[in-house]
Design goal:
This protein is of the alpha/beta class. It has one domain: Ribonuclease H-like superfamily/Ribonuclease H (Nucleotidyltransferase, domain 5, 2-Layer Sandwich), CATH 3.30.420. The protein is built from five helices and six strands, in the order βββαβαβαβαα. Strands 4-3-2-1-5-6 form a six-stranded mixed beta sheet, sandwiched between helices. Strand 3, helix 1 and strand 4 form a beta-alpha-beta unit. Helix 4 runs parallel beside helix 5. The radius of gyration is 16 Å and the shape is globular. The chain starts with a strand and ends in an 11-residue tail after the last helix. Its cofactor is Mg(2+). Keywords: Exonuclease, Hydrolase, Magnesium, Metal-binding, Nuclease. It comes from Corynebacterium comes. This is 3'-5' exoribonuclease.
């Protein structure tokens, strides 16, 4: 099962803190959470304006501890009826680090979670850079951006001149 995800975060060049995570499965299931564990005072002006200002009200049920997020993400990604998870993100290096850090260092990442995320921007380049849909107005909302990642993947998959033997499209 392919999962398209995005994270929003606070970073200072040395540390990175999860603000929110959105995941969209190719079968339509979705997951979204905002961490109660980040320190908003560490956010730079750009993150305050483009990310924190757009978060749901802190009383909303999507606000959760990282411990809760960790358990819910694991359950969402590893339900056996959906097969092995395949992770995709647009410029996803930081996203993968944040995902892995839900469990601590890389040695504590559950075996069922892939050790890498497939790079959607690179896939787009391989597909010949087909026109992509305009970024949503609510960009920098992790769930909105994850949905947009799925849209971009589908456009790229349809643009590639590859048949059923294409491992990526199986």
């Amino acid at each position: 099962m392919r999962y398209f995800y995005d994270t929003e975060f606070i970073e200072d060049g040395r540390t990175i803190e999860l603000v929110s995570i959105g995941i969209v499965a190719e079968d339509g299931r979705e997951y979204y959470a905002v961490s109660t564990d980040f320190d908003p005072s560490k956010a730079n002006a750009w993150v305050r304006e483009h990310v924190l200002s757009r978060l749901p009200n802190p009383g909303d049920s999507v606000w959760k501890s990282q411990t809760t997020i960790r358990g819910e993400v694991l359950a969402f990604l590893t339900s056996h009826k959906y097969g092995d998870p395949e992770l995709w993100a647009w410029v996803g290096a930081y996203d993968h680090v944040l995902l892995a850090q839900l469990w601590g260092d890389m040695t504590t990442l559950p075996r069922a979670i892939p050790r890498y995320t497939r790079e959607l921007k690179q896939y787009w380049e391989f597909a010949g850079k087909p026109p992509l849909p305009k970024s949503p107005d609510d960009t920098h909302d992790a769930l909105i951006d994850a949905r947009h990642n799925l849209e971009k993947f589908l456009i790229c998959a349809s643009a590639l001149p590859l048949g059923q033997g294409n491992r990526v499209l199986r």
